Amino acid sequence: MTTQRERTYLMSPPEHFAVEYAINPWMDTTAPVDTELAVKQWEGLRETFVRLGHTVHVLAPEIGLPDMVYAANGAFSVDGVVYGARFKYPQRIPEAAAHRRFYVDHGGWRFVTPSETNEGEGDFAYLPSFLGGTVLAGHGFRTEIAAHAEAQEALGRPVISLRLVDPRFYHLDVALAPLDDANVVYYPGAFSEATRAVLRQLFPDAVLADEEDALAFGLNLVSDGRNVVLNSEATALAAKLRAAGYVPVPVELTELKKGGGSVKCCVAELRP
User: Fold this and answer.
1) Cβ(151)–Cβ(179) under 8 Å?
2) Residues facing residue 185 across a β-bridge
3) β-pairing verdict for 124-127 and 134-139
4) Residues with Cβ within 8 Å of residue 179, at least 6 apart in sequence
């Protein structure tokens, strides 16, 4: 029986969203973005979380930071400790300061400024009930593996490193997602052979996505332990999740996909 747990999220509206540069294989600077539609789809996503009983804080967007809508990348928090982001590409570096200000202004958080390159929840996922609280961490394209050790020291939680090998899945959160506090869904082809062996050993009951749904950003999802909010195009994955006892909640994010992200990219979970 799957169990919902109330969550608290941080999101940033796409008022300034545009594809002005290309830093992942999905970004095409010649493809126009309908900003009005992007805002409408984002608002629908926010309302979905509120309707499901969750709390959503909003981080004000800033002019000149078109990727700020991808709020997952700005930091990673566990039990009141925030491990800040240090972006790989210069275009996104100022976003880290905006996220830091949010945690400082809201109080109650211990913020750890990183020395190593990492992109927050883009490459970190937390399973509170797995081995007493475990972090899964991706590397290979954005986050440096040295950041995994730094995060472990900052958060006091064991970190398991997972190597990404397909540039289309440049962040962990487009290749793997927690479904509840101890289990995950992932696309095996995004990972190295050794990492796939580790994942099979750790999560024998994981839900496995096929390539088609992974390429539709189906794994870039947010689950509260029961309700799984995911891209509406990932229909086969939705069926697998339903068969596993979860409740798929499809949403359309066609405009935000143009920047290389979907549901999870737009959402940072706050864990006070």
Assistant:
1) no
2) 177, 207
3) antiparallel
4) 185, 207, 223, 225, 228, 241, 244, 246
Closest CA to 16 of 259, 270, 267: 259
Residues 73, 259 contacting (CB under 8 angstroms): no
Cβ 127 vs Cβ 96: under 8 Å: no
User: In terms of Cα–Cα distance, which of 3, 29, 5, 17 is closest to 266?
Assistant: 17
Residue 162 has a pLDDT of 99
pLDDT recorded at residue 214: 98
Backbone φ and ψ of 183, nearest 5°: -135, 160
Model confidence at 1: pLDDT above 80: no
DSSP class per residue in 126-138: EETTSTTSEEEEE
Q: Is 265 a catalytic residue?
A: yes
d(CA 214, CA 211): 5
User: Taking CA 67 as the corner, what is the angle to CA 61 and CA 69, rounded to the nearest 5 degrees?
Assistant: 50
Give the type of residue at 18.
A
Domain annotation for the chain: domains and CATH numbers: 8-270 (3.75.10.10)
Residue found by looking up tokens 């749904």 in the block: 213
Residue type, 248: P
Task: Decide if 54 is catalytic.
Answer: no
Task: Find where tokens 């986050």 sit.
Answer: 143
Residues sharing a CB contact under 8 Å with residue 82, sequence separation 6 or more, in sequence order:
75, 76, 103, 109, 110, 111, 112
Q: What average pLDDT score do residues 68-86 get?
A: 98
Residues 54, 148, 171, 266: which is the catalytic one?
A: 171
- Whole-structure pTM value: 0.97
Query: Is-contact 98 123, C-beta < 8 A?
Result: no
Residue 66 burial class via C-beta count within 10 angstroms: exposed 0-12, middle 13-18, buried 19 and up: buried
